[in-house]
Amino acid sequence: MLSIKNLQASVGDKPILKGINLDVKAGEVHALMGPNGSGKSTLSNVLAGRENATVTGGSVTYQGKDLLALAVEERAREGIFLAFQYPVEIPGVGNVYLLKAALNAQRKHRGLPELDAMDFLALVKDKMKLMEMNESMLYRAVNEGFSGGEKKRNEILQMVVLEPNLAILDETDSGLDIDALKVVSHGVNSLRSPDRAMILVTHYQRLLDYIKPDFVHVLSDGRIQRSGGPELALELEREGYAWVGDATNEGVVAP
Amino acid sequence: MNPFLAQCRASFEAQATLEAGVAERGQRQAEWTRFEALGWPTTRLEDWKYTTLSGLEKLSLQNSVEPREEVKGVPPSLPLEGIPANRLVFVDGAFQPNQSMIDRLPEGVRLRFWSDLDAQERERFTHKMAPARALTAFGALNGALFTEGVWITVDAGCALEAPLHLVKVSRTGQRMSHGAVLLELGENSGLTLREHCVGNTDQPTHSNWVTAIELAPRARLTLVKVQQEGLLSYHTAALHALQRAGSHLQVFSFALSGALGRNDITLRLIEPHAECVLKGVYRVADRALQDFHTSIEHDSPHCTSDECFKGVLEGSGKAVFNGRVRVALDAQKTSSRQSNHNLLLSDKAEVNTKPQLEIFADDVKCSHGTTVGQLDEEQWFYLRARGIAADLARTLLIQAFTLEIAEAIPHVGVREEVRHLLSGTVEENDHV
Predict the structure, then answer these.
(1) What is the mean pLDDT of chain B?
(2) From CA A194, how far away is CA B55, in angstroms rounded?
(3) Is B208:B93 a contact under the CB 8 Å cutoff?
(4) In chain B, where are the structural domains located?
(5) Partner-chain residue, chosen from A88, A94, A97, that has the shortest CB–CB distance to B382
(6) Rounded mean pLDDT, B120-146
């Protein structure tokens, strides 16, 4: 589904990704771990198409297409979903409006008929139950005045409504208490399927107690230093990141 | 003398001759003399520094002289269909009894027209209009040239739930219209006035209305004005309000189209515990200009004012915001907020924004803030990352910026209608 080859990217003049190689097949869940400043978020952003990172080398192929040549919105319509580390507040744009516009943009792109208001609301209300969210949040502005936990839940709500092929969850567990973490994980797990792939970007092993990855990769200093099974995450939890490189000691701040 | 002024003079002379009463003739003459003494507003004057009237100067426009000049068949593009009741329609400054619907107003609401008033009432009307006409030279011009006026009174204790619509149509090109509105609300009364300034001609027009408001103690008035005139329309308007104890005034002003708009708004809080809200949106595209000169005068203690204007500027559009807040020496415990936020969507767009705080009392809470910026890149990326097209995402964010002002309109029907106007066709086609 996704093939990243020798990907290099800079933020400003500073090289952040220094040759990433990663293959993700349908049905797989990959956890991408690493210390702050290792390039985890930059990788998520490059995949989603955010313009603040500049790709300086390498390639990314998604479902046989050159991903880097696609516009942000085209990637989304092709089934890539980024759950933001810091979901943006958009006063004046209704949550329900965004969900419907997003879903119908994707359906149109795939040659499916757009959902009418009734079918759409039925679908969304069903998904909100799964996320244990109050329906009133539909009629509020996107993320406006939401708590940190509500924002993350709202990201996963969008994900379960849009049913992406490839979901990238950028530090979705940060700022969640244990109950919210369970709800969010439940939402994510409900989407696991043989045709869908996920990349979980996380700093801590905690999320992986609830969402079991097939593969764990350790990113440090812009490269994947080690790959393995779920046991690698446990090893990291015990040993910390100190052994993977010096990045933690450089005081590098995540972009 | 520029062509505009020459035509104004000719119109004034014709109108003064027609005026039957000596007093009325004298009054028009006095206003004309005052207009000439004030002189044509040029950019050399501080109040007109960024607003040039060179486009208007070149126009030779006819004035409507007949207060009931009937215009048959108001075109269907105008929003009359959507206003089933309680509407007052003026076309090119003349009142249209056949287009208006005022028979279902409750007893406590009275409408009188200048042309029907007796000499004594006319004197009172003129006296009450004076502060609004004093705001700019165009106010004096209005006093000299006005075609018709309407005097709306709401009796004490009468609260009207349904809005009253005032529809001002610039229908004919090469015309100017000068009208006057006097609004008096009795104690504990309430009214929502929805003012539609519309035009459907691609010829130049000039609309120059004055509005005077007096609110008795604890009266509540919401005024919602929307300017949606033609691309070559000129719009000058003056609004003056006097607020007595505990009265509540909310003014919403949306300047959405036209070649040039200038709104002078002065709200005076002259007795304790009066509150005013003054909010607005201006949108300007290529070569258009909108100018809001506002003044909130705290003359009495324990009053509150809340002012916020938002602007969206595209192409070579220009805007001016001058927000004066004056707190008199004995207006202690005043609470006043002012803000002006602008979205500059082009390198050629220009906004001149100036807060002007004159605070003489010492125990007050006053704040002001101004921003000029571009669209938020993070918000834009977020919408696109959900599959929304770049252009639509941009439009949504621009709308969202201005919708905040509409959200504050208390009357739900008017609020929805204005929301709809601000969001244009986007939500129309995709409404949940």
Answers:
(1) 92
(2) 68
(3) no
(4) 61-376, 377-432
(5) A88
(6) 96
pLDDT at B432 over 50: no
Q: Give A92's contacts in chain B (Cβ within 8 Å).
A: 397, 399-404
A122: contact with B, CB 8 A cutoff? no
Highest mean pLDDT among A147-151, B89-93, B168-172, B224-228: B224-228
Give CA angle at B85 (B83, B90), nearest 5°: 70
| CB A7, CB A20: distance < 8 Å | yes
The model's pLDDT over B349-399, given as tens digits with 9 standing for 90+, comes to 999 999 999 999 999 999 999 999 999 999 999 999 999 999 999 999 999
CA–CA min distance A72, chain B (Å): 6
Question: Do B300 and B271 form a contact (C-beta atoms < 8 A)?
Answer: yes
pTM above 0.90, yes or no: no
Name the 3-class secondary structure at A60. Answer: strand
Per-residue confidence (pLDDT) for residue A107, from 0 to 100: 94
Contact B175, B63 (CB under 8 A): yes
| Mutant choice from B381, B391, B401, B405 vs A, greatest count of A C-beta within 10 A | B381
Q: How far is B277 from chain A (nearest CA, A)?
A: 20
CA distance, residue B372 to nearest chain A CA (Å): 18
Distance CA B365, CA B363 (A): 7
Contact A158 B386 (CB under 8 A): yes
What are the residues facing B352 on neighbouring strands? B320
Cα–Cα distance measured from residue B92 to residue B201, given in angstroms and rounded to the nearest whole number: 11
Flag residues of chain A having pLDDT under 70: 243-255
Instruction: Provide the CA B157 distance to its chain's centre, in angstroms.
Output: 26
Compute the count of residue pairs across chains A and B with CB atoms less than 8 Å apart. 85
Residue A94 DSSP SS3: strand
The answer to whether A162 faces chain B, any CB pair under 8 Å, is: yes
